[in-house]
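name: query_chain
kind: protein
chains: 1
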Amino acid sequence: MAGGGLAVASAGGEQFEAKITPIVVISCIMAATGGLMFGYDVGVSGGVTQMPDFLKKFFPVVYRKSNEAGANSNYCKYDSQGLQLFTSSLYLAGLIATFFASYTTRKLGRKLTMLIAGFFFIAGVVLNTAAQDLAMLIIGRILLGCGVGFANQAVPLFLSEIAPTRIRGALNILFQLNVTIGILFADLVNYRTAKISAGWGWRLSLGLAGIPAGLLTVGAIFVVDTPNSLIERGRIEEGKAVLRKIRGTDNIEPEFQELLEASRIAKEVKHPFRNLLKRKNRPQLVIAVAMQVFQQFTGINAIMFYAPVLFDTVGFGSDASLYSAVIIGAVNVLSTLVSIYTVDKMGRRVLLLEAGVQMFLSQVVISIILGLKVKDHSEDLSHGFSIFVVIMVCTFISSFAWSWGPLGWSGMPMAMAFRIQIYKNYIP
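structure:
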């Protein structure tokens, strides 16, 4: 992970003594609101871009095309580079911001990085809600993307480091659970605001993102920084005091010495990225990178961003499209809960393999139905096929939500657990 950080557990998987203290629970809940903000930004886009008032104001060409083509064509209703820039600018900004976030996470700490993310989120929400032209809208999305980059860098690392070893997997999935809750919340909001006839429903949808943004900012102010981060930055005694506080016990010496040793070894590394590419460290590197890459290659973002648009295109109508998106969001949340309760019993590998097959088959079925039944200048899908498409999309979403979604993040602690041993391999 580019941001740097020390593994809480020992390299050998030793379970350190620790209680589940209130400060750990509160800190994890507040930090995980970064996932809530990310999920809301992902979920709100698809619904907003389908609202006529939003399209009429910012994308009049798309608005005219969608109305003119609505009765004749199933294709190219939303073909607009500006519209695609609105949705994709968040991800592009998030990608670039991650490189800066890696520096702040390492040098300034996880807490301050989450606070920076909160400020970016608030600024982006304000600009999007008050947007008067496309430039203002895009700048707001870019600021939200910067917030995503900083939050996604710091929050999972914060959760991994502050949680006791025995519940770290479940608490780390809390980030992904909040992502799914944020998506569901956005779908519900879009379903209601789309019915506002005064023309400002889209502003309310974008403005309500201020709730999770505010929660993350307030939470970042009051949470403690992790012992790992404090020790890494040379604040040894403060790190020890925080470790004692969050573990709820005075028997912290074994874990504290482990963190000190990891910090000492890390500082002796001269060329970490060069050594990371050596053959002996390649398995850990491949696992850490592949988990994140394949999480995105599943195509989940296309579904989450454009589900309302997809359903509208195949003939659901505006209300039914948003309602179907709400169903998908609910399935997403419930299936993530499945992962929390099964990951430590069934193991990550079983869930990832099973879900991979399930996602593949559901996507094949969807492709066949849309390829055969949805034609240009043709009738919309029949009622039965429409419902079946929704079921198949839910099948895809459920498998992602109990596997590649949360386990992509919970794989971070696993990758970090290798780091002490990797650092030892770095030293000649």
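note: Residues 22-225+269-426 form a domain with the Growth Hormone; Chain: A; fold (CATH 1.20.1250.20).
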